[in-house]
Amino acid sequence: MTDQPMSEQERLAAASWSLLVEHPDPVAGALVAQLGPAEALDWVQHVLDGRIDAGHPRWRQAVDRWAPRLETLEIRRQLEVLQRLGGELVVPGDTQWPTALDDLGFEAPHALWVRGRLSRAPGLAVVGARSATSYGQRQAADLAAGAAERGLAVVSGGAYGIDAAAHRGALAVDGDTVAVLAGGPDRLYPAGNTRLLEQIIDTGAVISEYPPGAAPTKHRFLARNRLIAALGLATVVVEAAWRSGALSTAAHAAGLSRPVGAVPGPVTSAASAGCHRLMREQHAVCVTDAAEAVELCGPISASAPREPDSPPSLLDGLAPLESRVLDAMPARGAADTANLARVAGVAPAEVRSALGRLELAERVERHGSQWRRAR
């Protein structure tokens, strides 16, 4: 993805691609990445007009797949609808563009249709069952509220059950929250959550990779899960049946090398069977409160509030490598790099890199050729 602002022509083309393809479409992603949205659109038109040959059959199949929507393309009309809704189009290169989505590679969206204000805060994805129990909804709301208080934007899908509880938890503490829709930004779905989604628009953002008018289909619910996973530094599943859409979000997060957490439930509860499965088979981290969810996200902010009556920890706010190196340092006295590498179980070069960052953070001090914890 480019980090340069797009021209108006390119913005229109990016918006057009968000309508032409049924997401995710890595062939379209590769074409746009190679040529840019406007030139890629011209290439498709030239192939359809017979002016150039598509080359490989895979490209011809892709063009044939996009052609029906290209024939009825009225992207300016959909942009006008978005404007009437008070929304805006956000494309790669815009300051509002969530660069975390670029980790999706050729499966990243071509544009986002946004209502509200996209937060610049790092995200935590909180997902789970639509048919949630009161236990699950309470856990999701408490976890989301605690994460929002610590400076994270809570990302979910706006659905009934756990999604709605997570959004409400963030809203209750005036935190940031983002709902990723499976249909267009004008289709606040499910209808029973319209008021909640309107509240999110007022203080956070409702986003979609589809333009106004797009219907929320079953495929699109599954496809949007990759966006939820990408927008979070980590994903936490709160209640999920043995087969659940929330598990697909966790799978996307794992595929992006994002940490995955799961909230345990009663062993007799079918609503928590998917969470237990994640912990048993996918090595998801057991999460029992907001602090543990935030810990999955790594260092967020030095000013993040602590749990009441909880003394500061030596390793608070540190990334895993720095945490291991500082933890390997003797409580009293000093140690050299070779000794720290042996105790921490990491390479000497990694120790030196971590020590440099720890020194900048004033967590360690150099003492000759050795290092000790800062006083």
Automatic annotation (TrEMBL):
InterPro entries: DprA, DprA_WH, DrpA_SLOG, WH-like_DNA-bd_sf. Residues 311-368 form the DprA winged helix domain. Residues 89-295 form the Smf/DprA SLOG domain. It comes from the Bacteria. GO terms for biological process: DNA-mediated transformation. Belongs to the DprA/Smf family. This is DNA protecting protein DprA. It comes from Bogoriella caseilytica.
